[in-house]
Amino acid sequence: MAVAGAQRKQVLKVLMISLLLDLVMTEHSFHCISFTFILPLFPSLLSFYRAQDPSPDSLLNRIFHYLNAYKNAFARPIDSRYDIVLLGGALGSLFSLLQAFAAPVIGHLSDKHGRRRALLTAMVGNILSVALWVSATDFRTFLASRIVGGLSEANVQLANAIVADVTDEARRGASMALVGACFSIAFTFGPMLGAGLSTVDVVAANPFMAAAAVSLALIFLETVYLWACLPETHPQFTSLEQESEPRADEKKAAEPPKKPQPGTGSNGQVTHTNNPALLNAVHFLFLLPFSGLEFSLPFITTTIYAGTTSASPAALNGRLLSMMGLIASLLQGTVVRRLPPLLTMRAGIVACALSFFCLARVDSVTGLYAAGALLAVTTATVVTSLNSLGSFEAREANRGAVMGRLRGWGQAGRAAGPVLFCTLFWWAGREAAFTIGGIAMSVVALLVFSLLKSPRCACEGRMMILYKIGIFYPQIVLTCFGGGIILWGLQVNVYGE
């Protein structure tokens, strides 16, 4: 049951302000920006730590030793300029792997002890993670900060669980899309803010302390704000007023025939519109190729721009990622939240398959940005829609666990995807790798179109859907076009030529 209107709006307001604090520089999810802070800093960070301890026996150089052994296994040589990109991808895979194990556990604990307590505990872990980054004068400490962050990052699933707690099924998709929009905005501006703070040199032993310290201060501020303003929302523990239900006779007259909902059937078994195991499998199979595509974008960008500009690869990748983030945030704020989640999910997966096939042959900047716009549609729709569909299949008593497992399976795909796709990329070549990726995403699309069903509350009449598509199609076109123009000018100023 949903929370009463005024209190529901207050809870959502607290979540949105918390996420908007992230836009000023905090860490992933509830603090999404400081995670994106690190993206443009990775090359400089790892180069700095390598210079700090050039010994062949240092942890970082031992990792590079194994990385070179991996590279030398291919018949095609891999340029040494990609070493940092490969290592950054390995660290990202480690973070996702830790999340795959931690997310279901934290989700279960939030069911047992409440969302608020679980979230504040996770925030303490995130504070510790960034505190380690502040003090990281060597690679061991920096790696420890990423491990602590991977084990304590629970904000994505808890944000979605809180939204599901306080909204009814009819409002849930729209509210989750707004949460997704905040994340997309973070990925739009986070790399720029991180790049700007990296130029502030406070301590010679840790030239990145300014970015880390600002991130730490804002995470602490956000934690205090959540402690003071966020109430408990778990139905079993909350004191929030529940929205009153209509009388039985009114409810019966107003409702259409019911479709299977999560609950107990006549035979004592739980019934679902979409089995959570199926949603978990789709999340894993989607992120497996999609994360590999994300990881390979720097290789493609560097190749396409080779010899045509003096801008650094980090600046070129920053422009593309920020354009994608802006388009995704605008789509989530205007279009995605108004359409049924299954419809938007199907559109996003088709856009991703098209992007794979496009990137298999693209050889121009225009083609690269066109593929990036398709990926922005995917970013805006698929995971947000999966979270919405997953929330419909969870009961009040196990919502955190169900959504934690959904995230965990997705993170498992995100951990394995870069390794598998990079191997395919350098073994078979770009065209073959992206063509295979496109075929894999087409298989995912076939599964989604044939097996997933729209929950009753999320169903729309066919004419209403067509009407909404007609209304918002111009917004989609204008968003993609305008977002590219805005970000091009913005990134030139921030990253330089």
UniProtKB/TrEMBL annotation:
The chain crosses the membrane at residues 84-106, 118-136, 176-196, 208-230, 284-306, 318-336, 343-362, 368-390, 411-428, 434-452, 464-490. Residues 239-271 are annotated as: Disordered. Keywords: Membrane, Signal, Transmembrane, Transmembrane helix, Transport. PROSITE patterns: MFS. Residues 1-26 form the signal peptide. Residues 15-456 form the Major facilitator superfamily (MFS) profile domain. It is found in: Membrane. One of its GO terms (cellular component) is membrane. Residues 244-258 have a biased composition (Basic and acidic residues). The keyword DNA-binding does not apply. Its main location: membrane. InterPro entries: MFS (IPR011701), MFS_dom (IPR020846), MFS_trans_sf (IPR036259). It comes from the Eukaryota. It is a multi-pass membrane protein. The keyword NAD does not apply. One of its GO terms (molecular function) is transmembrane transporter activity. It holds the Pfam family MFS_1. This is Major facilitator superfamily domain-containing protein 10. It comes from Penicillium chermesinum.
